[in-house]
Specification:
Blueprint lengths: L5 E10 L5 E9 L4 E5 L28 H15 L7 H12 L9 H19 L3 H6 L8 E2 L1 E5 L12 E5 L6 H21 L19 H14 L9 E5 L12 E4 L5 E4 H14 L2 E5 L7 H11 L4 E4 L7 H10 L4 E4 L1 H4 L2 H13 L3 E5 L9 H9 L3 E3 L6 H17 L9
Parallel strand pairs: 4-14, 7-10, 10-11, 11-12, 12-13, 13-14
Antiparallel strand pairs: 1-2, 2-3, 5-6, 6-7, 8-9
């Protein structure tokens, strides 16, 4: 007979995909169930994200060590949750939030709290003999998300001359997840051949996309269109394009002024960026645009959405940071029509689900996302299926920490057999 009482919780410092420390939590239940969870970390972070605690000891990992967060798991959080029932996810998450006592988890650390929260969900699912995606999403969970594959990087994720952070291939026209993954993986390899033939760099950025020096941001779009065709697919039918500007990274101030510094395109206003987006949406098969403006540019976001929200999905990331307080404001002000969803932006599984629910209840879409500093943990893949959002952002067809998520989705598709549903909406 299963006993889902939490017996022990321990943490250790491990390295993420960028070689920086992060937290891994090991959790055991009374029935012998043992799981681990590893916490991702972002580079392009919103100002209002939940706080991941770093040690700030310059002699260890340039101050990025997480021994303090590990200690917080091993002491305060373990003392709190040992003896609680792992099936009471919301109760456990709420108790950890209360113990932290801050609005942004700056006392115990979102990296410490999330590690425990994810492990609790995994343990409860394992003990019940239920796949994690079904445990979190329900017995009828069956939609596999469309993979929004990052194939070209710029901005904070690459050291090159492209301002916009991510250009993604989105296989909307594929008949299944496995075929969709093939479409974009082949496009990724076609792009590599094109870059190599022109003497451009084929090294990759943090999330696995190529990071060549290009003459303009628009050249990135033209290269992707060329790669889609070279891979044997039709742009706008088989494969669409998604963009993440991560505009906060090139915002000059909090008044809607921007500097496209990496490409040398110079200073722009919110209106300039909106005008550019309108041109691109007419010219290219763009299906969504994430963070087209900066986290403080609420007025610009609303203008952007008024102009383009009926044509594309306008996604807020830094502006919303998976926080229902900011998403609620965005809904009220019509700042966007979709929110990015990142577990470590808010710091517990329960709060992340609350953010998804708020989007869904108000007719918004939501895009589940990885972070630039990832691990081989596949929690995100199951979570994306459970949340039934229709699309997932988890990197390129390179770097094993990204492919781990795609490969887990292939497993889920196999488990679901003929019941698997692959659809954008």
């Amino acid at each position: 007979m299963e006993n889902t009482t939490i017996k022990s919780v321990k943490a250790l410092e491990i390295l993420d995909s960028r070689g920086n420390p992060t937290v891994r939590v090991l959790l055991e239940l009374a029935d012998g169930t043992k799981v681990s969870s590893s916490v991702p970390s972002g580079a392009s972070t919103g100002e209002y994200e939940a706080v991941e605690i770093r040690d700030n000891d310059p002699k260890r990992y340039d101050g990025k060590g997480v021994r303090t967060a590990v200690s917080n798991v091993n002491n305060q959080l373990a003392s709190l949750v040992v003896g609680m029932d792992a099936k009471e996810q919301a109760k456990i998450d709420k108790a950890m939030i209360a113990l932290d006592g801050t609005h942004n988890k700056s006392n115990l650390g979102a990296n410490a709290i999330l590690g425990v929260s994810m492990a609790v969900a995994k343990a409860a699912a394992d003990s019940s003999g239920v796949e994690l995606f079904r445990y979190l999403g329900g017995a009828d969970t069956r939609r596999i998300p469309v993979p929004c594959m990052n194939i070209l990087n710029g901005g904070e994720h690459a050291d090159n001359s492209v301002d916009f952070q991510e250009f993604m291939a989105v296989p909307l026209g594929a008949p299944s997840f496995s075929e969709g993954l093939r479409y974009v993986a082949q496009t990724f390899h076609a792009l590599k051949k094109i870059l190599a033939s022109r003497g451009l760099a084929t090294s990759v950025g943090d999330e696995g996309g190529f990071a060549p020096n290009l003459s303009s941001n628009e050249e990135a779009m033209d290269l992707i269109i060329e790669a889609i065709k070279a891979a044997g697919f039709e742009p706008g039918k088989d494969i669409m394009i998604g963009i993440d500007s991560a505009a906060t990274s090139f915002c000059s101030d909090k008044k809607g002024n921007y500097n496209l510094k990496w490409s040398g395109a110079g200073h722009k206003t919110s209106d300039d960026l909106i005008a550019l987006a309108k041109e691109w949406v007419e010219k290219y098969p763009i299906i969504f645009w994430e963070d087209p403006l900066a986290e403080e540019d609420w007025e610009g976001f609303a203008k952007f959405t008024a102009e383009l929200g009926d044509k594309i999905e306008v996604i807020g990331d830094d502006i919303f940071v998976t926080n229902t307080q900011f998403i609620a404001r965005g809904i009220k002000e019509q700042s966007a029509n979709s929110s990015l969803i990142k577990l470590n932006q808010i710091g517990t599984v329960t709060e992340t689900i609350d953010a998804v629910r708020m989007c869904r209840d108000n007719g918004w879409r939501y895009l589940i996302s990885h972070r630039s500093g990832e691990t081989a943990d596949t929690f995100l893949a199951d979570f994306a299926v459970a949340m039934d959002g229709g699309h997932l952002k988890t990197g390129s067809a390179s770097r094993s920490e990204r492919l781990a998520k795609y490969n887990r989705l292939l497993e889920i598709e196999m488990l679901l057999e003929d019941e698997a549903l692959y659809s954008w909406k």
